[in-house]
């Protein structure tokens, strides 16, 4: 989920330089799901859900496609060419891949809370998908979409569609950012609580688990029960939009490794690392163990977390930049034609969870740079390769990574529709899926 630069600057902290190997990455495939991809709500959904994004401005707006989105003043205020509110529900940006694929080979993917905040997303329905990128045609097929609902009243607080019979969930209830599939059930990591959501494969909520760290509840400013005024670091510890952006499923263990997007707040400031908490799906409880992940210099948040074997895993780390540095604004240049805050740090890091130092940090083995991807065979889709230099993935939020085979990984972005660009000034970012050949990264120990 994208927040304004002003709200995310607090994530910056001093980090020691990390001496680790940078491995090469080669583009092996490229596919796109267009930004303007919409779907109809279920027939039994409230009528309110048929027009989404009505609350993204300063006042309610029920006139479809009447207000054009833009990337925000910190990013040049570029218009994106797509206007709110929407007729139907936007498929929009992918915020997580499950490690385990569906029986038909498609990928379980997750859409986040809607439009960026708890307050502006009460008409954005929550769902996950099965998707198939085709790197021959360059298209992404949405095989199925499953809407989340709470007919059994498992959610421990009042939901936006509380009084309805179907009780579909919305972006005012949860911000789903990470997903795993285990023994016929879906596990989702949320940012608002942060909560873990257990659901059936057809979207029925089975349980909702609050977070515990060192035996105490861990909460944020958007957790039900947090009231204003509340003192950061004292009354809550999780930053806004700082919950479970990544959540790995450790093979053969039933353990979920839930990784907070940003460092925890303390009464004295914030921790200089991001926390990983482990949850036992069989016991239905937190293990009490936690670990630390150190972001590289310039990185502000993580984007996804997936295991590739029993102990090694991939983690996306990113800065808050958007747009190719080749189009960065020069001093005094009109920001309408350039990127004032271009992407610089967009890495996929290989870690080993079995190697933990005395301070509790998991070992970083090495990484690839998503701003420096070779494309010798010209696999980038037409018009999506920079005029000069390597292929880049210059999006604000890159939130999906999973191992495909012993040589390849799949990566995708959350396009924050209609508030992010990155590929072209004046145009909303699409949902791009890239297949990367990275045998050296996947083979590193």
Characteristic terms for this protein:
single chain, 445 residues, mainly beta, Tachylectin-2, Chain A, 2 helices, globular
Care to describe what's here?
The structure is a single chain. The chain has 445 residues and is mainly β. It has a single domain (5-443), classed as Tachylectin-2, Chain A. Helices cover 2% and strands 39% of the residues. It contains 2 helices and 30 strands. The chain has helices at residues 5-8, 439-443; strands at 21-23, 26-33, 38-39, 51-52, 67-70, 79-84, 86-87, 89-90, 94-97, 107-111, 127-134, 139-147, 176-182, 185-190, 195-200, 205-213, 216-218, 244-250, 255-260, 265-266, 269-270, 274-280, 285-293, 301-307, 312-318, 346-356, 362-369, 397-403, 408-414, 431-437. The strands form 9 sheets. The chain has a 5-stranded mixed β-sheet. The longest helix has 5 residues, at 439-443. The two termini are 32 Å apart.
Q: What is the strand and helix layout of this fold?
A:
Layout: H1 5-8, E1 21-23, E2 26-33, E3 38-39, E4 51-52, E5 67-70, E6 79-84, E7 86-87, E8 89-90, E9 94-97, E10 107-111, E11 127-134, E12 139-147, E13 176-182, E14 185-190, E15 195-200, E16 205-213, E17 216-218, E18 244-250, E19 255-260, E20 265-266, E21 269-270, E22 274-280, E23 285-293, E24 301-307, E25 312-318, E26 346-356, E27 362-369, E28 397-403, E29 408-414, E30 431-437, H2 439-443
Parallel strand pairs: 1-27
Antiparallel strand pairs: 2-30, 3-8, 4-7, 5-6, 9-10, 10-11, 11-12, 13-14, 14-15, 15-16, 16-17, 18-19, 19-22, 20-21, 22-23, 24-25, 25-26, 26-27, 28-29, 29-30
